[in-house]
Amino acid sequence: TEVQTRDGRTLDAVVVAFDPERDLALLHVDDLEAPGLERADGGIGDTGAVYGHPGGGALRAAPARIAEVVTAGGTDIYRTGRTDRSVFVLAAELAPGDSGGPLVDRQGRVVGVAFAVDPGAPGTAYALTRQELDAVLQPALAAGSELAVETGPCLVG
Predict the structure, then answer these.
(1) What pLDDT, on the 0 to 100 scale, is given for residue 155?
(2) pTM, to two decimals
(3) Which of 40, 75, 86, 129 is the most exposed place for a label (fewest CB within 10 A)?
(4) What dihedral angle (degrees, nearest 10) is formed by the CA atoms of 34, 35, 41, 45?
(5) 136/38 Cα distance (integer angstroms)
(6) CA angle 93, 96, 97 (to 5 degrees)
(7) What are phi and psi of 154, to 5 degrees?
(8) Is 11 helix (H, G, I), strand (E, B) or coil?
């Protein structure tokens, strides 16, 4: 796993936390000279942007508004177990490649993580709430671990 910096360098990244129920992974990158983003709670009506790479292209900011907060039932990424997640329904024009990008408020604070678009409703997308992000991030930060964790296979079956 690698991360490309703004100046074009490619740095190795190590997965230090992984949650298949939330489909989130936390990466550690040695020698990355970038501060972490502040986190905040988001709410219905809040506006901001999702930063992503639609279609694998250049980084862009897509305007977004939190339209609703729901508990979404589904399965883990391996489709082997059931999971419920706190999710923002967004009014946003996202595309494949934006998944995993931060949803930030107008102050640039992370309030969620984008993960899907609604193929049947153009202009509707979804993001995990900060609470879902923190459930993965906080234990890793508290442990202070930089040790790699296993993520399992990309596909099951």
Answers:
(1) 64
(2) 0.91
(3) 75
(4) -50
(5) 16
(6) 105
(7) -75, -30
(8) strand
CA 11, CA 31: separation in Å to the nearest integer? 8
Q: Could you tell me if 36 and 110 are in contact, meaning their C-beta atoms sit under 8 angstroms apart?
A: no
Tell me phi and psi for residue 32, to 5 degrees. -85, 115
> Cα(2)–Cα(17) distance, rounded to whole angstroms?
16
Q: How far apart are CA 115 and CA 90, in angstroms?
A: 11
Residue 125, φ and ψ in degrees, nearest 5: -140, 175
Nearest to 89 by CA among 106, 107, 54, 64: 64
Give the whole-angstrom CA distance, residue 133 versus residue 2. Answer: 21
Q: Which residues contact 106 (CB under 8 A, 6 or more apart)?
A: 46, 47, 48
Integer Cα distance of 42 and 143 in angstroms? 26
Please give the structure tokens belonging to residue 79: 């489709």
User: For 76-108, how does the pLDDT look when each residue is reduced to its tens digit (9 = 90+)?
Assistant: 999 999 999 999 999 999 999 999 999 999 999
